[in-house]
Amino acid sequence: MALLEIQDLHASVEGHEILKGLNLTLNAGEVHSIMGPNGSGKSTLAAVLARRETYEVTRGRVLFNGKDLLEMKPEDAACEGVFLAFQYPVEIPGIGNAYFVRSAMNAIRKFHGQDELDAMDFLPLYKERMKILEMDDKLVNRSVNEGFSGGEKKRNEILQMAMLEPKLAILDETDSGLDIDALRIVAKGVNAMRGPDRAFLVITHYQRLLDYITPDFVHVLVDGKIVRSGGPELALELEDTGYGPSEADVPQALPA
Amino acid sequence: MSTTANNTGNENAMATATEKLGTYLEAYGELIAERQERDPVWLRQLREDAWQRFHAKGFPTTHDEDWRFTNLAALAKTSFQRAVEGSVTVSAGQIEKFRVPGAGCRLVFVNGHFAPELTEIGDLPDTLEICSLERAIAKTMEGSEPNGSGSVGCAPEGIEQHLGRYADVRRDVFAALNTALWEDGAYLRIHRGAVIEQPIHLLYVSAGAGAAIMTHPRTLIVAEPTSHAAVIEDYVSIGEETAFSNAVTELVAGQDAVVSHFLVERENLAAFNVSTLRLELARGTNVSSHSILLGGGLVRNNVHPVLAGEGAECLINGLFVGAGRQHLDNYMLVEHAQPQCSSRQFYNGILDDHARGVFHGRIVVHKDAQKTDAKQTNRNLLLSDDARIDTKPQLEIYADDVKCTHGATIGQIEEEQLFYLRSRGIEETSARNLLLYAFAAECLDRMNDSPAREFVASLIGERLTDLAKNHQPAAPVAQVESAPVKEETQSWEEVG
Ligand SMILES: Nc1ncnc2c1ncn2[C@@H]1O[C@H](COP(=O)(O)OP(=O)(O)OP(=O)(O)O)[C@@H](O)[C@H]1O
Ligand SMILES: [Mg+2]
Asked: What angle (nearest 5°) sits at the alpha carbon of residue A207, between those of residues A201 and A210?
């Protein structure tokens, strides 16, 4: 059984149809990359998968681990193992960074019938993962993302992912705004988490990220549909030719 | 009903507001007769003047600029009775849940009367005098220890000098009514240089008496020069009956004293509560007022600091949380009378359902108050389309070298923040609760670390949990088309 199976997905925002019949299948252990022009619907797809209610699904079906993802609330999807690293992480003044992650971890643990972690169990783990991502200790008690630099916000997303250990991680342009060192650090964090039980959906505009995180499949999303799919070499080709259709165009192709 | 109501609205409204003064007249008559022997002459005079003032003016109407957003018709219509001392018995068990962990002592009043059997004085340093105001005055009359309050250390000197000298009975009819009708309250005197570490808890309990009762608690706090103390004035109810608490507190801070005052309103939803805190700040004092309004049906909280000595600093901090049909009115009059003083007003409001909030922040900078630095901020979260906040800054500046700023914001819980939390697995009610708490915590962040802060933090936490739980989540579709965020910010700075 595939980890994620998207069939004929149509979704709209405020009456505008953004996703127009999207098909995609991810198996556990795979890394898929989605590329595509601005406004083509990449973040919309990510938001629908994370169950943002402002995006209305008008047609299609999404199965996650065999369960109907579209029936789930955002918190249920998260507890089932969906994680979205936001393109624009939001600042939440007044809620401490570590406190927030611990609350999230405990919510997920509770969902799975596990005991809650107290601060004593949690903090060492949190600080250790922070160190891997070369994040400043001072960020532990700062409010969630408040006053973080662009790069710090993105690293904070990856830190949360590392703590919550999802089955499916969707990274929405995690590379944008990162300098080359930060990019390497983030990629290291992601690669450390690759494994047979986990899949990644990496949304990006740049080959640069894919030099570090080698995808198994690359898909091109244009105007709400996947118009091409291929292996890692497709990303390189796109660097040269752009997102326009090519002779090798295979609409709606699914990875073998 | 008169068809000319519009033309004569003013007079009609006045008539409605004053016609029920009979109940107060009766109460005043009884009280004066009972106290003929007990009250010293100066106090009788104080009551008499205040009564005349109240009787002449009656309750204000919404035509009065200071009461524009708060309609007192329901209060004026109710015939409140004086509470007969001892008519209701409250057990220690019943008030156990109101305990403030870490408080050094607790003075309890039931329906306005001192309850020595519920009071816990503990191990007080002799640099702190605390007792019932009524008993302290009785002591000045008899020159002896009144009915067995021996454990409560209290030297009554200074009461005549201070009581009623600050509360403005000319302008404020509720202060006048309290001054005329008060029966008891707390008297505190913190000696020069004394540092009282643990907060002092003054618990005012309204307990159903089978009739709508009124109480007029009167508190006098004298913090002598360079003393430090924190006082929690706490209004609670037992049972669901309506009651009217009309409290006045005068807090006099001597030179370089550091005092924190907490007002906690957590009465039942049928309660009327008007409280007036009059702060007198001498040179170099640092006084904080924290008003936490969580309960009560119709609540008016007046905070009136006068910065009467050079270099005084005043923080006027508040949080009001309303749901259902609660009406929470915050009125501040900050008077800068001397140079080089600073005042900071910060109020956060959270309103759900049909609740209504008022923030009226008036700053008066007198002619001599050069180099005044006054700041006012009011931030509000409206959780429902029917909730409402009226926020009104009012600045009167008669000095020319001053810095005054004010700003107000009105917003809603941000969907983006809510989604962010939920996307990490935190369920909606908890996520909402976290966001509300984060907003409310701005008020807690302005308090020093202390048991008093811990205590109000836990009360706020409980209140917000209830609010988040009872909140009706909007249907997903409705959320897409939700009304645009009401956001209004204004800020200006005046530098003379
Ligand atoms: N709340 C909204 N209201 C109206 N239109 C929206 C809303 N959110 C997204 N859209 C529109 O949906 C389209 C797809 O947006 P989306 O963010 O999914 O694009 P994207 O592929 O992630 O682009 P980018 O590469 O710039 O991040 C855009 O045209 C965008 O303007
Ligand atoms: Mg995007």
From this structure: 45
